[in-house]
Description:
Blueprint: E1 2-7, H1 14-17, E2 22-25, E3 28-30, E4 36-38, H2 45-54, E5 60-62, H3 66-79, E6 82-87, H4 95-105, E7 111-115, H5 121-135, H6 141-151, E8 155-160, H7 165-169, H8 175-181, E9 186-193, E10 196-204, H9 205-219, E11 229-233, H10 241-250, E12 257-260, H11 263-269, E13 274-279
Parallel strand pairs: 1-2, 1-6, 6-7, 11-12
Antiparallel strand pairs: 3-4, 3-5, 8-9, 8-13, 9-10, 11-13
Helix pairs in contact: 3-4, 5-6
Amino acid sequence: MIRILTDSASDLTATDSARPGVYTVPLSVTFADGTGGLDGVELTADEFYAHLKVDKVPPRTSQPSPQSFMTIFEDAKENGDQVIAILISSNLSGTYQCARLAAESCDFEDVFFVDSRTASQGEGILIREALRLRDEEHLPAHAIVAELEQLKQRIRILAVVDSLKHLHKGGRLPAAVALVGSALGVKPVLSVVDGQIKLADTARGRPGAFVAMFKNIEKMGGVDPRYGYALLYSDEKGVLAPLHHYMHENLHMTGGRVARLGPAIASHAGPGCAGLVFVTKE
C-alpha cells in the first residue's frame, strides 16, 4: 500500500483526512501563557480561536517531533508499505527536514518526500491528486511523486488578512514588508508562491482588497478548473462571501472546498483571514 503522509498545516477537511492511507502528523501551538498543545489533537480549532480573541500576543508554532514521524515510518516498514510525505514548504517550517531526519533515524528508505512549496489547502490539492493517481490511475509511488513535483509549481494562494502582525511576529514576513502592509486603513493581500509569503498587493479597506485579489488571480494565470479550488477562512466564515460571489458569478465555477484554517496556520494568518487556493492554468 502507498500511504500519504502530511502535517496538520495542510488543514485537510474531515472527509479528506478519513480517506484510506492518509496520515497526519500534528504541529504544536503555544500561547503566551504556556497553554496550547498539538494542533487538532490536544487543541481544537474552536479552543484555539477562543484563546486568540483574548490573547494580545500571537501564539508560537513548533514543528512535529521526530518521534511522531518515526512511529508512522516504523509501522509502514513493518507492513511493507511505501510512504509519500507531502509536507508544508521548507521555507515556512522545519517540518520537512524533521521528517527526512526521522526516516534516516529509523532506516526507512521506502519513502518519497515532497516539499510542497505551499501550505494549508495548497498541500491539500497535492494530497488529493496523489490519492487520485494512487486509487484511479494506479500509478506507482515514484510516478505519483513525479506528477506532484510538476503540479506544485502551479499552486497559488491569495489571502486578504486584517493585519500582518501575526506573520511578522512569527518571523514569516520581513519587518519592511509588514510595515508597508500595516499602514492605516490599508488591507494587505498576501500570496504564497514557490514557498514564499509575499505582499501581493494593498488596498484601502476590505472591499478594495478583494478587488485587488481578483485582479491578482488573473495576473497569475487564472484558475485551472480541473483541480477545483479551496476557500480558506480563520475565525469568521462570513468573510468568504465576496470570494464565493466572484468564483460563482464571474468565473462561473462552483463546488469549491471551504476549509477553516487550523491552529498551526491561523497562528500566523491571524483573525479575519479570507483566502483562495488554486492551480494556475497551463
